[in-house]
Specification:
two-stranded antiparallel ribbon, 2 strands
């Protein structure tokens, strides 16, 4: 009985989430760093800073590239 309730609850959640259209968020176009180059595509924006091997820092779903500012500053050297 409990398992049936859990399955029904999960199914209802999936249906409700599917009914809500995703908001089309505009990617940020301003660079965090003065020498940063921002590249914007359909669903992603990338800021390229510095020289050397590439390091990809990915913020979480509810955060922005600002999350990685301190780390990127330390890695610049």
């Amino acid at each position: 009985m409990i398992m049936l309730r859990m399955i029904a609850s999960m199914a209802a959640t999936v249906v409700l989430l599917g009914a809500v259209p995703a908001a089309a968020a505009e990617p940020p176009t301003t660079a965090l760093f003065a020498d940063g180059q921002v590249v914007v595509r359909d669903r992603i924006s990338v800021e390229v800073v510095g020289h050397g091997p590439d390091i990809v820092l990915i913020p979480g779903l509810a955060s922005s590239r600002e999350t990685w500012r301190d780390t990127a500053t330390r890695l610049r050297g």
